[in-house]
Specification:
It contains four helices and eight strands. The strands form two sheets. Strands 6-3-1-2-7-8 form a six-stranded mixed β-sheet. A two-stranded antiparallel sheet has the order 4-5. The mean pLDDT is 93. Helices cover 24% and strands 34% of the residues. The two termini are 19 Å apart. It has 188 residues and is of the alpha/beta class.
Length: 188
């Protein structure tokens, strides 16, 4: 016997599926609009599972996922998630980082774990945080995968699993709703 709970998170993000291809037989047109820079209002559901309830009669307290809300808010909310292998990465990110001395990519770890979720640009003291250049550069969250909803649901699963394991709680599944009508699910 097991119990399952879920928590929903919402945030805005941008991405592009730079490898998108459509099959003529199935698509009404062949316009690969997901190759464009575009944004979504994400709705992410994290499903947790436990074989036993804790002393409070819970799989875990929903507040034990506060760290994940904070992580989403600080890391990907209103950011553009870009694959470092995307051909536009060089133009959008690398060339801009190179043109400003002292900037560097820094890993973003899930708090309390060694899991590196992606990278951000750090300016240190080298750039005015109110400058348009800095506002542009801080808008990127860099990953090493094509940021489809399928890959993003696995990404959340992978980053939440080691953290929740510390409580003896299993991440059973993650749903990534890209739009109200389009969802991917990943379970390990």
């Amino acid at each position: 016997m097991s119990w399952k709970i879920s928590k929903q998170f919402n945030f805005a993000y941008g991405h592009r599926v730079w490898v998108q291809k459509l099959e003529k037989e199935f698509a009404l047109d062949r316009k690969c609009v997901c190759r464009h820079l575009h944004g979504h209002e994400a709705e992410v559901h994290v499903h947790l599972e436990g074989d036993e309830l804790d002393a409070q009669g819970m799989v875990t307290d929903f507040l034990h996922l506060s760290w994940l809300k904070k992580f989403f808010d600080e890391t990907v909310d209103h950011k553009f998630i870009i694959d470092k292998n995307d051909p536009l990465y060089r133009k959008l990110v690398e060339e801009n980082v190179r043109s400003h001395s002292g900037l560097r990519l820094v890993p973003v770890e899930v708090p309390g774990t060694d899991y590196v979720a992606g990278y951000v640009i750090d300016s240190g003291p080298h750039m005015d945080p109110n400058s348009p250049d800095w506002e542009y550069l801080e808008s990127f969250f860099i990953v090493d995968f094509i940021p489809t909803s399928e890959s993003l649901s696995k990404w959340v699963y992978d980053l939440a699993t080691p953290k929740m394991a510390k409580l003896g709680v299993k991440v059973a599944e993650v749903e990534w709703w890209e739009t109200p009508k389009s969802c991917s699910r990943y379970s390990g």
